[in-house]
Amino acid sequence: MLRAQLRARLAQAWPELAVVAEAENGEQALALQRELQPDIAFLDIRMPVRSGLEVAEELAGACHVVFVTAYDEYAVTAFEQGAVDYVLKPASAERVAKVVARLKLRLDEPPLDLAAVLAQLEARESGGTLKWIKASLGASMRLIAVDEVLYFHAQDKYTKVVTGEGEALIRKTIKELFDELDGELFWQIHRGTIVNLRAIARVDRDYRDQPLIILKARPEKLVVSRTFAHLFKAM
């Protein structure tokens, strides 16, 4: 969905641009780059198999690189200090237009040396986001890997943790969880709901034209509130 959104934004901002391939992971991205030798690569920092940072390091000046990220101000500062192009998720039309304008000016120049900014971002990448959750299941406790969570939903004084295997409760608020979770993988879609992007099968529209999330491993549908509907606007 994120690739589709970015592709739509690029089509608006740069109609002449030819998108020659899309990769689902870092290894595939490297293989496609070697085969097709594109002028520009848009790399999601948190791609599976090999990260966007690893791919950029291996490309080493073979093409211009634009990072796609949900990082906070710390990372944005690192980008700007290195004059590196980046797009924050979800990709806004304004930001993509700005990146396109810069790329057009840079195409006749050699790609930037990314060594310094990569070092900063790799240091940030190794920082701690929530990996495990201690949850109650009746009278017992269970450790749940955050990657296994499909979504979190506020329930009275607790938060419900939903996985493909079942549900559990934790004493953390949605706000506390959102601050601790990896923003590349988990999006807040409602005041009381956070969803794992990898758990989404597709996004439909309800009778009000509001986004409605269909999950891969659960029958329930998750409503996206108007506050967060913009996240899925171009998908």
Give a brief description.
This protein is α+β, with helices and mostly antiparallel strands and 235 residues long. It is built from 7 helices and 13 strands. A hairpin with a 2-residue loop joins strand 6 (149-155) and strand 7.
Task: Provide keyphrases for this structure.
235 residues, alpha+beta, Rossmann fold, OB fold (Dihydrolipoamide Acetyltransferase, E2P), 2 domains, 5-stranded antiparallel sheet, 29% strand
Topology (SSEs and partners):
Elements: H1 2-13, H2 26-36, E1 40-44, H3 52-59, E2 64-69, H4 73-81, E3 85-88, H5 93-106, H6 115-125, E4 132-137, E5 140-145, E6 149-155, E7 158-163, E8 166-170, H7 174-180, E9 186-190, E10 193-196, E11 200-205, E12 211-215, E13 221-223
Helix pairs in contact: 1-5, 2-3, 4-6
- Look at the structure and name the CATH superfamily of the largest domain: Response regulator
Spatial separation of the terminal alpha carbons: 6 Å
CATH class category name of the largest domain: Alpha Beta
How many distinct helices? 7
Quote the average pLDDT: 85
CATH architecture of the largest domain: 3-Layer(aba) Sandwich
**What share of residues is helical?**
25-40%
- CA radius of gyration is 19 Å
* CATH topology-level fold name of the largest domain: Rossmann fold
What structural class do helix, strand and pairing data support?
A: alpha+beta
Shape: globular
Following the backbone from N to C, one meets helices and strands in this order, namely: HHEHEHEHHEEEEEHEEEEE
Count of β-strands = 13
How much of the polypeptide forms β-strand, as a percent range?
25-35%
Largest sheet: 5 strands, antiparallel
Low-confidence stretches: none
